[in-house]
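Design a sequence for this backbone.
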């Protein structure tokens, strides 16, 4: 299927407080994304620390997101797992709780074959009548979803696209060529948003837009409208923030950025650690340069 997502989709941080997930702050973050021009959100993707979330917290987050989005923007839920039975259960749960789609990362740690990947996504697509976005991030999972494999997976009726975060533009371009007209390409790496959109990508699934939804949306819209001169200018302005948001393992920096903006995002859950003082200063400087924080002495 095509045209499921378009524009900027934010991979949301999960805010934590002393009693668990902070649903009040989570709703505030979603409201900010709607106001900032995002067309969708991802709940419990990599940025949402799903490996550290309990089953009860998971359900509460999905319910909160669906309610806060109120049909204004799309809600995708991360449902991938290295345990196929769990991936199927989570996909059915997403459907039951009202999500618009599922984001299914490739099975991690098990390091399955390409045939195993095909069977995995086939099973997820059969589990629920829900658009499925495949998520390729080999740096996290140890498994690379190859273009030829994705071309076969793209023939499944409810596969909406692939979130490409391999960092390999040659691979991205080959995937784009092989899936064109069958399903869509989405950027899963902020540093490559511009070239992936220029290659025919329909949307970005962004970490940086947690902090700067207006700026990321402006960049996305500029490329989609064919104004590459404006897109390059906007990308130049965003590059320092992109770098700062990945100065340590995601979502460590972006979570601290949300705290700096006044959201009660809290600290990452162990084994993730708070942002170092050195990288925090770099993040502050980048946020000031983007107009997200007042300049020192202003």
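Sequence:
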């Amino acid at each position: 299927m095509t045209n499921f997502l378009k524009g900027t989709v934010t991979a949301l941080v999960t805010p934590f407080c002393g009693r668990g997930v902070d649903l009040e702050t989570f709703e505030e973050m979603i409201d900010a994304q709607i106001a900032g021009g995002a067309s969708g959100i991802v709940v419990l993707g990599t940025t949402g620390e799903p490996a550290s979330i309990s089953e009860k917290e998971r359900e509460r987050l999905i319910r909160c997101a669906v309610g806060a989005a109120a049909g204004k923007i799309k809600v995708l839920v991360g449902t991938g797992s290295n345990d196929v039975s769990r991936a199927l259960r989570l996909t059915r749960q997403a459907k039951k709780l009202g999500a618009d789609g599922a984001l299914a990362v490739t099975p991690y740690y098990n390091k399955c074959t390409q045939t195993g990947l095909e069977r995995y996504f086939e099973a997820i697509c059969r589990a629920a009548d829900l658009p499925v976005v495949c998520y390729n991030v080999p740096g996290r999972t140890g498994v690379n979803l190859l273009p030829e494999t994705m071309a076969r997976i793209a023939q499944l009726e409810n596969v909406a696209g692939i979130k490409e975060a391999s960092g390999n533009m040659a691979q991205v371009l080959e995937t784009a060529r092989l899936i064109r007209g069958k399903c869509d390409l989405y950027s899963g790496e902020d540093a490559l948003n511009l070239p992936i959109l220029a290659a025919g990508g329909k949307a970005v699934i962004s970490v940086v837009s947690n902090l700067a939804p207006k700026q990321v949306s402006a960049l996305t819209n500029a490329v989609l409208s064919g104004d590459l001169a404006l897109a390059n200018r906007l990308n130049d302005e965003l590059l320092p923030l992109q770098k700062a948001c990945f100065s340590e393992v995601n979502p460590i920096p972006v979570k601290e950025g949300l705290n700096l903006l006044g959201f009660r995002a809290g600290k990452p859950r162990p084994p993730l650690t708070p942002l170092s003082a050195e990288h925090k200063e770099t993040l502050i400087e980048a946020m000031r340069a983007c107009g997200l924080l007042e300049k020192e002495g202003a």
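Residues 223 and 233 are 11 Å apart (CA to CA).
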